[in-house]
Write a structure and sequence with these properties.
The protein is α/β, with parallel strands linked by helices. It is built from eleven helices and twelve strands. It folds into two domains: 193 residues, inorganic pyrophosphatase (n-terminal core) (Alpha-Beta Complex); 119 residues, Diaminopimelate Epimerase, Chain A, domain 1, CATH 3.10.310. The strands form two sheets. The protein has a six-stranded parallel β-sheet with strand order 3-2-1-4-5-6. A hairpin with a 6-residue loop joins strand 9 and strand 10. The longest helix has 16 residues. The radius of gyration is 19 Å and the shape is globular. The mean pLDDT is 97. It binds adenosine monophosphate and manganese (II) ion (MN) (2 copies). The site of one manganese (II) ion (MN) has 5 residues, from helix 2.
Length: 320
């Protein structure tokens, strides 16, 4: 069983680094922290690295303060664990390819092929946190409230609160097990999902004004320019989930949000669909990836208008 091999490799290693993708989300941070805490409980020497700051709404999570935000890694670890992405490049961390002896990749994206010495890619898992849940359990760690808090966050965020089509009965069973440890899920949900800073509230007001609708309202676009972020004193991670407002409009099948990054002509595009558009496929064609109803890509050499035009043309082809 691949999980046992992964655990064996981890237990045989003296130094372990855990990494995940740039612009971290709840699944990324939650699964990193859960694995980190489990390894610590086993007396292992583990460290966590991210390229970007932990989003404000996730900083309450246990051990979140131990995540090191870095541009590059120059230390060598026995094992590097890459979570919630199938590509080392998506960590955005320089020199990462030279910082390990063995690489373990754990992910749930349908577009991930798996990489490294050991990999476990399960696209039927709603979140990487579901896979980490199994691994932690097999490590013999049960009923750990801190780990459960992190895993619940992973699963809750990646399923949009058990609402997206990736949610399964297993997702609910795992959530039930996690609740049985006594976690304060009301507090977790409020922190990670509902509560927002005033700057996020103001950002939201401005971004909603950018709505563009096409093809009889089946396609919706939202735009976050650098100027909008700056004007509202909002951080990049506060754009998370705004896309759902566009997706939720009646008649909309597919929504996209275009986020201007610091670098000129670097645009992050997120895609969400309601019933039939394969976002993973579309994102893949633009050099990204993800899941069937939620995917994304980063465009690096075209203007905002050109990216919009290209994506619009591609999406029109799949409309029914
Ligand atoms: P996002 O739009 O960033 O919220 O991402 C939606 C889903 O697609 C998440 O599961 C991401 O991990 C995945 N995703 C986003 N961008 C990329 C990319 N460039 N390559 C592969 N997967 C991506
Ligand atoms: Mn993620
Ligand atoms: Mn995920």
């Amino acid at each position: 069983m691949i999980e046992s091999k992964i655990i064996q490799q981890l237990m045989e290693s003296n130094s372990i680094a855990i990494v995940s993708h740039e612009n971290p989300d709840g699944d990324c941070v939650g699964s990193m922290l859960a694995l980190y805490l489990a390894l610590k409980r086993k007396g292992k020497n583990a460290r966590m690295f991210l390229k970007s700051n932990v989003p404000k709404n996730l900083r309450f999570l246990p051990a979140a303060e131990n995540i090191e935000v870095v541009d590059r890694i120059d230390v060598k670890f026995d094992v590097l664990v890459l979570l919630d992405t199938g590509e080392l490049e998506r960590t955005g961390i320089e020199n990462i390819e030279n910082c390990y002896s063995k690489l373990i990749n754990i992910d749930h994206h349908v577009t991930s092929e798996g990489m490294g010495d050991l990999f476990y890619i399960n696209s039927s898992s709603a979140a990487t946190g579901e896979i980490i849940y199994q691994i932690v359990k097999l490590m013999g760690i049960d009923n750990d409230k801190e780990i459960a808090t992190c895993l619940y966050t992973s699963i809750f965020t990646d399923t949009g609160g058990f609402k997206y089509s990736n949610t399964t009965s297993i997702t609910h069973q795992i959530a039930g097990d996690l609740i049985n440890t006594g976690i304060d899920f009301v507090y977790i949900i409020n922190k990670v999902f509902d509560e927002m800073s005033l700057s996020k509230f103001n950002l939201l007001k401005d971004v909603l004004q950018t709505l563009e609708l096409f093809e009889g309202n089946k396609i919706a676009f939202l735009t976050v320019t650098r100027e909008i972020l700056k004007r509202n004193g909002a951080s990049r991670d506060e754009t998370e989930n705004i896309i759902n407002f566009a997706k939720n409009i009646e008649d909309v099948e597919v929504a996209a949000i275009f986020i201007e990054e610091e670098e000129e002509n670097k645009i992050k595009v997120s895609l969400r669909s309601k019933y039939y558009i394969d976002c993973a496929q579309v994102a893949k064609e633009f050099g990204g990836g993800g899941h069937i109803r939620a995917a994304g890509f980063t465009s690096r050499n075209a203007s905002l208008d050109a990216v919009k035009e290209n994506l619009l043309r591609r999406l029109k082809r799949d409309l029914r």
